[in-house]
Every structure is written in structure tokens, then in C-alpha cells.
Write a structure and sequence with these properties.
The protein is built from nine helices and twelve strands. By secondary structure, the chain is of the alpha/beta class. It has a five-stranded parallel β-sheet with strand order 2-1-3-4-5, sandwiched between helices. Strands 6-7-8-9 form a four-stranded antiparallel β-sheet, with helices on one face. Strands 10-12-11 form a three-stranded antiparallel β-sheet. Helix 1 links the parallel strand 1 and strand 2.
């Protein structure tokens, strides 16, 4: 697996690269935003670790550009930053990041988060190879989601969240349950993370505006049948 590290702090970049290589992965370091974007566009990468504060293009700008490009739209992205305010976390998530790690962080925790994200990005699906709701079709074999026959680009985490919702339609799902089962660990970023991803799904798949019901102060419920 090839991981792109976009980080201008040499010590942090070298430390992260060391732990990635110990885990058996290939690491490439880019020290500026434009350099990271150019590398991701020219080379197949399996995941991007993206610092928010980069010279040239910011991490937010790089994330937005990656999501706008069909070739890189589905690449998992974990944002790295020393800025821990909720507004900064939400900004990264709304741009399309799948996860968020605040500095200083434990390298072992970062490795665990990468493993969890990649494991759930490529986990085997159920016997059923396609999940459907209204105009939405999720093909688990090809990893493609379509709406009225038009392919919709989802991030890795959006895909996993939608799959979980479709597999548990009709059930009321708490935000904590979604964090645990979809994110795959005891996530410390807060339940706001779930709300951001749900909002992005509703924007990309308008059918979910009515079909995915917000259960006040608890979580969400996806309609089991067609929405009238």
C-alpha cells in the first residue's frame, strides 16, 4: 500500500514515514500542498495523510482538489493538524476528509486509524452484491454508487456510512453506534463527525433528504421502504 504524507514539518514527516514503513507500507513525503497534489495526480496512492497548514496550497485546498478529480475522488484522506478547534475539524470533514487527527498524536494510534479506515474501505460485502433504495443503487463488487443511473462519487467513509445505513434500514442508529461500527474505533472527534458525513450524503443523494430521518438528540433512521 502506498501512502502519501503531505507534511512540511520534517521531523513529523520522517516519524510518520518510519512507522508506515515498519507496518509494511510505502511512504512518499511531499512538503508543500502543490507538490502533494501533483504527486497524487501522477501516482496511484491508497491513502493521503494531509496536514492542514501547508505552504503553497493549504491542506483544505488539496483535499478539495482531490475530491473534485474523478481519478482521486475516492482516495481515503486523513487530515493532520495542530489546530484542534471544532470549526477546523468540521472544515476538513466538509471538504471531504474521511478522518481527522490532531497533533500531537501517537504514531501507533495513527497506524490503527489507517488500518481501520483501509479495512472498512475494502471489507468484504454481504452475499448480496447490490443494495438499493429508491433511485439509489450501491454495487458492492464494483464499489460504485449510482442515483437514477448516474454514478455518484463518494469518499471512502461516505461509502461505508451509506452501506451501513442501507444494511440496517428501518433501525434507529445512535451517533455513538455509527462512530463505533463505521469508524471502527472509539473515535474522539465527537458525534459532529457523523452529522457532517450525513449532510454530505444528503447533498450528493437528494433522495436521502426525506428517506434518512434525524432522530432528535440521538441519531438517524433510514426508511425501510420507498418514501412517499
Amino acid at each position: 500500500m502506498r501512502i502519501l504524507i503531505a507534511e512540511d514539518d520534517r521531523d513529523i514527516a520522517e516519524l510518520v514515514a518510519h512507522y508506515l514503513q515498519k507496518s509494511g507500507w510505502t511512504a512518499h513525503v511531499a512538503r508543500a500542498g502543490d507538490e502533494a497534489l501533483a504527486y497524487a495526480r501522477a501516482n496511484a496512492v491508497d491513502l493521503v495523510l494531509l496536514d492542514v497548514m501547508l505552504p503553497g496550497l493549504s491542506g483544505i485546498e488539496v483535499c478539495r482538489a482531490l475530491r473534485a478529480d474523478r481519478a482521486t475522488a475516492a482516495v481515503p484522506i486523513i487530515m493532520l493538524t495542530a489546530r484542534a478547534e471544532e470549526a477546523d475539524r468540521v472544515a476538513g470533514l466538509e471538504t471531504g476528509a474521511d478522518d481527522y487527527v490532531s497533533k500531537p498524536f501517537s504514531p501507533n494510534e495513527l497506524i490503527a486509524r489507517i488500518r481501520a479506515l483501509m479495512r472498512r474501505s475494502h471489507r468484504a460485502g454481504p452475499t448480496e452484491t447490490a443494495l438499493r433504495l429508491g433511485p439509489i443503487v450501491m454495487d458492492l463488487d464494483s464499489h460504485i454508487v449510482s442515483n437514477d443511473g448516474r454514478e455518484i462519487k463518494l469518499t471512502a467513509k461516505e461509502f461505508m456510512l451509506l452501506q451501513y445505513l442501507l444494511e440496517h434500514r428501518g433501525r434507529v442508529l445512535s451517533r455513538d453506534l455509527l462512530l463505533g461500527d463505521v469508524w471502527g474505533y472509539r473515535y474522539t472527534g465527537g458525534t459532529r463527525t457523523v452529522d457532517v458525513h450525513v449532510r454530505r450524503l444528503r447533498e450528493k443523494l437528494p433522495f436521502l433528504v426525506d428517506a434518512l430521518v434525524t432522530v432528535k438528540q440521538f441519531g438517524y433512521k433510514l426508511a425501510h421502504d420507498e418514501v412517499s
